[in-house]
Amino acid sequence: MEDLLRMLAALCVFVLFFLCLNFALITPNIVRGFTTDVRKKFSLTNRREFEIKKDAMYRQQVFMENYRPVRNSAGINCTKIIINSDQKEITKAKQVKTQLSNLSLDYYLDITNNCHLFRASRGYIDHPLSKMEHEFPIAFSILVYRDIEQVERLMRLIYRPHNYYCIHMDYKMNKIEMEAFKKIANCLNNVFIVKEPVNVIWGDFSLLEAELLCMKVLGSYKQWKYYINLTGQEFPLKTNREIVAILKALDGANVVYGSLKRTLSRYNTRWSMVKAPPPHNLTIIKGSMHVAANREFVDFCLHDPVSLELIKWLKETRIPDESFFSTLIYNPQLGIPGSLLGEPEKHCLRPFFLRYVIWQFHGNSNLVKICRGKFVREVCILGVEDLHSAYNSVGLFANKFYLNFEHIALDCLEELLYEKTWKEYLEDVSIDTSYYYHLDYAKMQLKA
Which has the closest alpha carbon to 101: 419, 427, 409? Predict the structure, then answer.
């Protein structure tokens, strides 16, 4: 009798074990099947199928299938640092010295063998998130020469399935780094790599040449509305939703800072070595290489004879990338829609809002924003204590960050923007763009 009871008990245990095992095997398959089916619907790298609804339940479903918490590994309260400028938390963050994330090249080479796993595990947003964003795609170029992880994190934060991205990897990068980023791009069908990169040297024509190569790649796609150029050491200060709203408020204006006064007083030696005068009687304007430009401007840069002759003329000058875009935008007689009418100095509401950057001006301490990070080649490498000012500025992007210097700054900014992106989506948050709407870029532009 005892043997029979033991046999029955063993049988019950076996049956219970079998049922539990079966449930454990079946349940993940059900969950995985549901997840895969839903994510297929939104995974625009495979199928361009999605819906844009304002229904709260639908938005929650999109959130559940796309959201991946981004948290810094040191347990720092990023809200206290960026929003509240809490000195106690800032001190705690500055004491974190070890780079805890440190995703290796081998990691990227391995995980990109499964593109679905790569996009899902890294938290890429495969849904447009709003009708406004979907109907206003942006083209981004990114010049890369170092730190694949930092560039991939930049890409992840600005990535949307309806935008367009061009990556120029400096010719000097080693083959393994190039291979890693090529595999990343292969997992994102709207990311394109320049096939024949140039050896970029600061101050040389090669920097402008790299920009033009990406412009050419992106110019063949006709859907995007605005072009923004970035470097791998920059990071956004606004969400994609905010950037789109700001660009829409500019109403087609081309944005690049330029100064005729500074050109005449300090920088004319950059092109004084050229014997021939500027082509087509152009006024050369010292400006910035950073630009937010409409399609007509990009087309003009690539194809118009005036632009092509200017490019040829600038090859003999120093730092031509800081003269090319500004010269075209501030010569309204060229008829490029979105150009600024009149001389630059006559219109004061032209802030350098495309970038938050702190320059080191020797002997002019009153003109300098305080850099709490460190200066490298007269540009502030932003640290934890710089985040509050940067985030609360009008800037769209911050220049610049180093992943091996106070990496918590990059971690916190990424964390806050990722959470803000989903908050804007779930709550359908409106964006105040009145500041940008009233700038002279928008109000004094040449209309088509």
Answer: 409
Give the sign of the dihedral formed by CA 204, CA 334, CA 277, CA 327. negative
Q: Where are the alpha helices (DSSP H) in 159-317?
A: 175-186, 205-219, 240-250, 260-262, 295-303, 305-314
Does the structure show a pLDDT above 70 at 9? no
d(CA 280, CA 302): 17
Query: Does residue 229 sit in helix, strand or coil?
Result: strand
Query: d(Cα 109, Cα 149) in Å, to the nearest integer?
Result: 12
The secondary structure element, H or E, covering residue 114 is: none
Q: Which pLDDT tens digit goes with each residue over 118-149?
A: 999 999 998 999 999 999 999 999 999 988 99
Which of 363, 359, 300 is closest to 328 using CA atoms? Answer: 300
* pLDDT tens string 236-267: 999 999 999 999 999 999 999 888 776 555 55
Integer-rounded Cα Rg, in Å, for the chain is 25
Domain parsing of the chain, residue ranges = 2-63, 258-346
Task: Look up the pTM and report it.
Answer: 0.86
Name the token pair of 1.
């009798």
d(CA 11, CA 18): 10
Q: Which candidate, 119, 427, 409, 3, places its Cα nearest to that of 127? A: 119
- Which amino acid makes up residue 45? T
